[in-house]
Specification:
Elements (H helix, E strand, L loop, with lengths): L2 H19 L6 E3 L12 E3 L3 E3 L1 H17 L3 H22 L18 H18 L12
Helix pairs in contact: 1-2, 1-3, 2-3, 3-4
């Protein structure tokens, strides 16, 4: 399995676990935010990351997508590139409170600790999406 396919598999598993964790009450501390219109399952995952039902479902979808993409090199590379771009945009939106962009127009909380987490997720995904695959050569015995 190539590094990019392994990346997609690991991200898929992580996103799926994080998405499911957002639905476990013991892992989500109570939290409300007046700018977030969708308050279902609203809280702080692990006491750090603002999530709601739409945020959790997005994580589950990214997880399923990652697992599916890990089946081929091309799909894994496309997943990595798309994840990098999407999470970079989400990170920037999280920084902009005007027009409720940091809550994606009141739908999904993107502020606080989510900002640096989205930046980290985007950076790792960009590495795997745009890196040049190493060509492995074998040394001939002398």
């Amino acid at each position: 399995m190539t590094g990019t396919r392994r990346f997609a598999l690991i991200y898929g598993i992580l996103f799926l676990v994080i998405g499911i964790a957002g639905f476990i009450p013991g892992l989500v501390a109570p939290h409300t935010h007046p700018a977030v219109a969708v308050q279902s399952w609203m809280g702080l995952l692990l006491g750090l990351f603002a999530v709601n039902i739409l945020h959790n479902l997005a994580h589950v979808l990214f997880g399923v997508w990652g697992l599916a993409a890990s089946g081929s090199e091309g799909a894994a590379r496309g997943y990595a590139k798309a994840t990098a771009i999407i999470y970079a945009v989400l990170m920037v939106l999280g920084l902009i409170a005007a027009f409720n962009l940091n809550t994606l127009f009141g739908l999904v909380p993107l502020y606080g600790n989510d900002i640096w987490l989205h930046a980290l997720l985007a950076a790792v995904a960009a590495y795997f999406g745009w890196r040049r695959p190493h060509e492995y050569t074998t040394r001939s015995a002398a």
